[in-house]
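S., here's the first fold you wanted:
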Amino acid sequence: MKKWFVTWYTPEYKEWARKTEGGYFLVIIRKEPKNFLCVRAKLIMGEKGLPGVEIIEEQNLQSKRKAQRVTRGWMKPFS
C-alpha cells in the first residue's frame, strides 16, 4: 500500500504527498490572511526538468478546523 508522507510542515503551509503512477498526489493547506486555501493536485514527473502541477480541486475555508476536515477527507480513500 502506498502511504502519505509529509513534504512540508510550517504554521502557514502544510503539504502531504502520496506516490502515484507518473508522479505524486498532493494535499495542501495554506494559511492566507483571511482564510485557509485547501488544494488537491497531481505533481507530474517528466523525463527531465521540473515537474508539472495539475490542480484537481481548490477550496477557500474560514477556519483551520474546516480545512483539516476537508484535507483528511481527500486523504482517507487512499489511506
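And the second, which I think is the more interesting of the pair:
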Amino acid sequence: MEAENKINSSKNLGRIFVLVVSLIVIGISGSYAYFTTNIMGKPTQSTISSGKFDVTSSLEGANAIKDLSLTLINAEEVATKAKKLEFTVVSTSHSTIDAKYDVFLRGISLSKNLYSADFKWELINKDCVEESCVLASGDFSTVERTDQAVPEEEPNVLTTVKDIQLTTESLLLNKDTTQNLIFRIWLQNDENRNQIELTNGSFEGKLALSVVPAEMN
C-alpha cells in the first residue's frame, strides 16, 4: 500500500498538463450610447449618456502558465505554491467614465478525471490590504461538458467544457485607475483519501476579460 500513501503526499507529482493562455481583446474607446449583454440572455440597452472609456490589460502580453507536473499542495500552501498568473486591468487617463468587467475561462479542454473538487482556482485582488483578498474562487467539479461521451471511454479522456465565468458580479474599474489581479490554479492535497484518480490528466484554457462601460444614472 506504499504507492497509495505516496499519492497523498504534498510532494507527489500529479503529472497534470496545465496551460492557461492569456487572451484578451479589449482596448475600446469612443463616445456612444451602448448595449450590455449578460453571459446568458438577451441584450438590453443602457440609459447611459455618451462618454469615453479606454481599457487595456497586461493579459495581452502575459506569459502563459505551463506545467507538466502539477504538485498536490495543502490548503495552507496555496499562496506560495499554486500556479499563478498576475495581470493588470487599466482604465487609462483618456477615460471619462468608469468601466466594469468580468473574468472568464474560455476554450476549455479538461480530462474527465479532473472534474473534481480537488482541482481548484481563485481570483485574487493583489492590491487588497484586508485579511481576505479573494474576489472569486471555485473548482472544476460542476463544469458542463459540451462534447458527447463515448461508451467505455477512458477515465482521463479529454473533453471540452463550457466557458466558466469566474466573477459572479462584475468588478468596478474606476476611470484612470489600475487594478492588479492574480489567477491561481492548483490540485489540493487530501491526506484522508487516495487521490490517484487525479494523475495523468490534462487541462487547457484561456483567461479572458469582458469589459463594458459602467452604468451611470
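Why I say that: The chain has a mean pLDDT of 76. The two ends are 65 Å apart (CA to CA).

Talk tomorrow,
H.
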